[in-house]
Design goal:
globular
């Protein structure tokens, strides 16, 4: 019986002050790594501290989730910035998280750009390189979208690159996630998401929302923490993983 090591990650730590978002406490029971907001698009110092403590309690590895400084838009609006600015902003955010990780005697597991910053990097090789270089400087793997030019752009910087796919999001033929404004862009059926996850880690093809087919080979599978079905999807993914002999460390 062959086994395949698969990481299941989720975005978290996205609350701010009295504003609450996500299902972190329930979600952390079913994932193996987490992408924590670092204060720019979401999160604040106390939320970061509490999220790191929660991750340590559940044995969840912690990665940085740097984004644009755009709390009002939740980091989902493009902010025009140079590669130098993106690099410095990423290091700034990673450093904030690393301070809390150091206190908790935990290491930084990875760096994964958030929201519009992610799409900015997907469309701009210099921006992608700036983010990957920031990850390389702190000796952390850089998470890039499987099946896109982002992977090669990051590899060329010398960074360690981990490929990622989203079982609960629909794709376009170019490997990008389907825009949220399109009907069917999000998958709300946990069982369907689990079946898609298997195809993503085994290299089988998937139907795209624009009528094509795409093949992805992902090392980590991501769940959006603000998805209403996030906890249920994480539960189903973890259970499904056991039936297909994935190793998820859970």
């Amino acid at each position: 019986m062959s086994t395949l090591s698969v990481d299941i990650n989720a975005d978290a730590g996205e609350s701010f002050g009295r504003w609450r978002l996500g299902h972190d406490e329930a979600l952390f029971e079913h994932i193996t790594s987490v992408n924590l907001a670092c204060g720019f698009h979401a999160g604040d110092p106390l939320t970061i501290q509490q999220s790191v403590t929660l991750a340590k309690t559940h044995g969840v590895a912690v990665g940085a989730h740097p984004g644009f400084a755009d709390k009002a838009g939740f980091g989902r609006r493009i902010v025009q910035a140079s590669a130098a600015e993106v690099y410095a902003d990423a290091l700034y955010q990673i450093g904030a998280l690393k301070a809390f990780l150091d206190v908790a005697s935990m290491s930084l597991h990875h760096v994964k750009p958030h929201g519009a910053l992610h799409w900015y990097a997907l469309a701009n090789a210099d921006i992608c390189a700036a983010l990957a270089e920031a990850a390389r400087e702190v000796n952390a793997p850089f998470v890039a979208l499987a099946g896109t030019n982002m992977v090669e752009d990051a590899v060329q910087t010398g960074a360690q690159v981990v490929t990622e796919a989203f079982p609960e999001r629909a794709y376009m033929q170019d490997g990008s996630l389907a825009p949220r404004k399109l009907a069917g862009s999000s998958i709300h059926d946990p069982d369907l998401a689990a079946r898609r996850a298997v195809k993503m880690v085994t290299g089988e093809t998937l139907d795209t929302l624009d009528g094509g087919r795409i093949r992805l080979e992902a090392h980590t599978l991501s769940i959006h923490g603000d998805n209403p079905e996030a906890v249920e999807e994480a539960q189903v993914l973890t259970k499904f993983a056991k039936t297909v002999h994935w190793i998820t460390n859970k």
